[in-house]
Write a structure and sequence with these properties.
The complex is a heterodimer of chains A (113) and B (113). Chain A is mainly β and 113 residues long. Helices cover 0% and strands 60% of the residues of chain A. The relative contact order of chain A is 0.34. The radius of gyration of chain B is 13 Å and the shape is globular. Classes of the chains: A mainly beta (113), B mainly beta (113).
Chain lengths: 113, 113
């Protein structure tokens, strides 16, 4: 069964810093990997989707990379802002067995003004 | 607007009283799924469906039922709710290979007393 791990579980940074969030997964037979943002008690907002054939995707200050062979993805946030404070989740859609979507437990980010 | 609609957003009920949480998507997605989110445990899959009349158990299916009679709808049924089913529930949908990523509903916060 696919296992998805996110490190660190929580992170506090001062405003303006660049930061990296990590996601690792055990089964490399994936269709894609998606990064989400979740504000407390709210729904999931999709940030970036990387197909298994891609190496990275960019949207504004966000850049996500994927190394499928090593089972790793990173989300890079440039010039962090207090509004970036949220929990960031990665999810992989796995091919092996029943096609299915597996989530990590998230990284809670706090950007201090 | 392309979206996944869950209802209700908030629900308080008593132990044993049957309830249904509805989920509907307007994107012609084949794949739909239900998750529950609990502090410290992340998002855990309850049931998923690859298409009409095709459903399968996720990681935590006990105490839940689903049906997929139409492509757009995927209701979650709690026949006899118990307090341990108090949680935040999310419905998600995608094309079957996840090509365009997953769209999530806004969530249903269920409290069973």
């Amino acid at each position: 069964k696919q296992e998805v791990t996110q490190i660190p579980a929580a992170l506090s940074v001062p405003e303006g810093e660049n930061l990296v969030l990590n996601c690792s997964f055990t089964d490399s037979a994936i269709y894609n990997l998606q990064w989400f943002r979740q504000d407390p008690g709210k729904g999931l907002t999709s940030l970036l989707l990387i197909q298994s054939s891609q190496r990275e995707q960019t949207s504004g200050r966000l850049n996500a990379s994927l190394d499928k062979s090593s089972g790793r993805s990173t989300l890079y946030i440039a010039a962090s802002q207090p509004g970036d404070s949220a929990t960031y989740l990665c999810a992989v859609f796995t091919i092996t067995g029943a096609n299915n979507l597996f989530f990590g437990t998230g990284t809670r980010l706090t950007v201090i003004p | 607007e392309a979206q996944v609609t869950q209802n209700p957003r908030y629900l308080i009920t008593v132990t044993g009283k049957k309830l249904t949480v509805t989920c509907s998507q307007n994107m012609n997605h084949e794949y739909m799924s239900w998750y529950r989110q609990d502090p410290g445990l992340g998002l855990r899959q309850i049931y998923y469906s690859m298409n009409v009349e095709v459903t399968d158990k996720g990681d935590v299916p006990e105490g839940y039922k689903v049906s997929r009679k139409e492509k757009r709808n995927f209701p979650l049924i709690l026949e006899s709710p118990s307090p341990n089913q108090t949680s935040l529930y999310f419905c998600a949908s995608s094309f079957s290979t996840g090509t365009y990523g997953y769209t999530f509903g806004s969530g249903t916060r269920l409290t069973v007393v």
